[in-house]
Structure formats: C-alpha cells, structure tokens
Amino acid sequence: MRFVSDPPISVKIRKMKQRVRWQEKAIAERGIDQTKLVLGLSAPDEPNFSFLVVGDSGAGPQGGHNPQRRVAEQMLNHKGSSRFVLHTGDVIYLVGSSEHYYKNFIKPYREFIVSGEHPKKIDYDKMVFNQPFLPVLGNHDYYDLPFIYGLMAQTTLPLRQLLQTKLDIDIGWHGSHQGKAYAQAFMDYLKNFEDEKELIDHLERHYTAKTNTGRCLYYEPGSFTRLPNRYYSFRSGGIDFFALDSNTFNSPSPLSKDLAGLEQRRELEERRDRLEKEKLSYIEESTKLSADSSEQLDDLRTKIEQLDELRNDIDKQLAADENTVVDTEQLNWLTNNLIESWHNPEVRGRVVYFHHPPYVTESTKWHQAQTLAIRYRFRDLLNKVASKIGSLNGDRPLVDLVLNGHAHCLEYLRTGDTGHADAHINWIVCGGSGFSLRRQRTEGVELTETEGGDVVARSLLYIGRNGQGYQKKRPYTFLRIDVQDGIPPKFVIRPFVVERFQGKWSNSEIKPFAI
C-alpha cells in the first residue's frame, strides 16, 4: 500500500524544461539566462540585511490546529525588516496537488500575497507576492497519487473512509502531475504562451534585468513574482544565493551485481516487507481510536509517514541501475557558477539552498541512501570548484552556508576535516515549519561515514519532537538570518520556536548565534 509515487528523474527534468521552454529560439536569440533573476527591491541593496527561512511546511489544519499558520503569524513580526523569504521545499503535502494550494499555502501565508485579505479569491497559479518568496522543490512537490487511490477517491469515498481509519491522510484526488502544480504556482510558466508574439512580448516586458551572463528575469514584488527555472541564482547585499532542485540528483548508486550486492538486495526487500507490515498495524490501531484522540492520531500518522519515507528510500535503492539518471547539467551549472562567483570581486559570500540535506541527524534521514547520494555528489562538485580556483578562497570554505529541509526539525551542523572541499562548512536544516516533527537519532550527535571511522560532522543544535506521552513537545520552527557587512560576511542565526505542549501554544526565541 503506497500513498504516493515519485516520477523518474528523467521525467522531472524533461517536464520542467518544457514548462519554461528551455532555451527555445525566442529565448536564445535574446541572450536570456533562464537560471538567474534580479530582485526588485524597494530599498537600496545594503550589505546589512535579513531574510527568513522556512521549510517542510505544506500542511493544512492537523487535528484541529494549524502549526504552519502559527509559524506564519510569528514570521509577520519580521516581515517588514526582512528582505525576502527562502523556502527549503515541500510547499504542499502529501502530494503537491493544485487542489491543496489554497488550504496548505495561500491561506496560511496570505499576508505575503497581494490581495491576501481575500485568500479564497487567489488562484494558485496567479499568486503575486508583496515580498520576495523564493522556494525550491521538495520531494512532495513532485509526488503523484497512485492511479487506484485517485480513482477510488473520485468515485467513492475519501481514502481514510476506504481504509476505515480516522487518520487524516490528506492526498486528495490527484497528485502534482510531475511537479506541474509547483511550476504553475511559482515558475514563469512559458508553456502557456501558444502565440509566438505573446511570448516575445512577455520576454520583452519581464526579462529586462542584465547580468554578466546576459538578460534575465526581473522579480518585482507586487507586480511580477516568478522564478525563471527549477534551479536559479540571485545576488543580494554582495551575497550570491544558489537555489537547487535536489530531487534530480538524489538517486542512490546501483547495487553491485556480486554476491554482496545480491545479499544487500535481499536484506532491503525483507526490510521493505517489515516496514509495510508495521504500517498496516498502525493503520489498524488507528481504527480503534476515537475521532477526538487528536494527539494519538497525530503520532500514528507521523509513524506511518516515516515508514513511507523509509520505504521510498528502499525502493529507490532497488530500482537504481546503470541507466539511472543524474542531473549533471544542473550540477555542472552550479560548479561553473561557484567558480565564477569566486572570481567576481563584487561577491563577498555564498549561500546554497536545496531540499535534501547532505548532513543530518534526524532519525529517519541520517542513514538514507538519498542522503549519502546528495552528500557525495555535492562534495564532488565542491572538489571540482576547489581544484579550479586554487588558493583563491584562502582558508575560507567554498560556501559560507548551506540551507536544507526534508528532515522535519531545525538543526545546525558543522563539518570537520572531511578530507574534501565540504570541510568546515555550516549546514542548517530548516524543515520543521509546519508538518509532522521528527526526533533526533539515538546514536548521538557525531556523524561518521564508516562504522568506527573519523567524525565528519557534528550536530550543534537540534530542535524537534521530544518527550513522551503527556510530556511530548512539538516545537515548530523558522529562522531569521541577519547578514552583516564585511569579508567574509557574518551570519547571525536567530531560530524562532512555536511550540505545542499539552494542548497549548507558546512562542519563544532560541539564543542567536553567529557563524
């Protein structure tokens, strides 16, 4: 029983290129770089500025309460003093369907959207932000609904009734259509222009900004707020920001075909069967609870979601073969742009953000094959940059800060001497902004790559689900990051917590720290 399906990487890449009409004639002739944007700002681009970070927020009301809205309300206290908002992915749960955008995004973030005082009148594919809102794709933004569930939901009853459970398994009637809903909501969906003249008029009106790589999209809050692509870059206060789509380079390496590989495959298949039986037992357990047992139902739903994620990771390992696609075009883009950034005297720092964290200690993510795939590919990319720029960076890391989501927590980690160019980098996971929170692993805060090996990273802060029973705490989080002038720049990290404990909400701020 699978509630979601994940499109192949090749499909994700092909569909997204079609949606932005990647480098078609009218675009190429005008020298337009479809991976860059320039932010239209109401104030001068000063080197001291702040921005907000949220992630994995895309749920509606849960058991009569709405964590995402609680977080959004606290974000409003910083809206006027922050230049933009970054979102680390999973804008919509459980599948990134267009039908969920009103409840799971527009309504909770309505103050960030033009005409937000009337959220029901806002179409998901016509949103205009009054402040830059800059997301990346999460895995749930790509997920689709297995055909049989969509058919049942449309022709008979909601899924929770079909399964005779009181769990709020909010999958709706259809999925994301391979990320189409996200593309229509946030990206400049050029596929809509069937007439060539209309396309050219659009390009001449909105691709007016100029960079050293040609013309690019001008992001104008209150007027036109679209992203040029699923991955993109922009500059603010002398800091280069790089947004990636990690869903297209998270595929695990194929299992070997020798005896060890066959044994590993057998173990993975047996583990997958155990996970499925465990999930069915939780669904059965939920049928015995009363509808007002919201805390217990939330716990069971969280366990089921965790098991689904573990199964999805196993499925990716079993499906990987020599034909598995890796998005080398995007990885090469980041490699070349980081090299260029280091050679640009106008740039004083670099921030990269994408969904899947290379380093994390959340209990369901730290050992996943996708986590390791992302780590090794991002590391290899940085190694290539390091070999090209030589001693240009001195003793500075190649990237000042990496922001991720996917793990439902707030975590700050720092790599040590990894033996590679990802050493001594600050990594922050901001994935606890509204959906089911997760615990930290019991194995401790130090990460090694082999059993008994050297420590490659250490968790310095972890905020996630904790406590048991009546003492259980659910601290949802977002970040304000203050960027200070100077080379290298200093980033002051200010975590904010909106906690649900014993049926009541409270707000707090964790002591800020500088990196």
* Helix segment tally: 13
Q: What proportion strand?
A: 15-25%
Query: What is the strand arrangement across the widest sheet?
Result: 7-8-9-10-12-11-14-13
Number of strands: 18
* Structural domains: how many: 2
Q: Would you tell me the overall average pLDDT?
A: 93
What is the CATH C-level name of the largest domain?
A: Alpha Beta
CATH architecture of the largest domain: 4-Layer Sandwich
Structural class: alpha/beta
**CATH fold category name of the largest domain:** Purple Acid Phosphatase, chain A, domain 2
Instruction: Measure the end-to-end span.
Output: 44 Å
CATH superfamily of the largest domain: Metallo-dependent phosphatases
Low-confidence stretches: 160-164
Structure explained in plain terms:
With 515 residues, this protein is an alpha/beta fold. The chain has two domains: 438 residues, Purple Acid Phosphatase, chain A, domain 2; 61 residues. Helix content is 31%, strand content 20%. The strands form three sheets. The protein has an eight-stranded mixed β-sheet with strand order 7-8-9-10-12-11-14-13, with helices on one face. Strand 13 and strand 14 form a beta hairpin. The two termini are 44 Å apart. About 1% of the residues have low confidence.
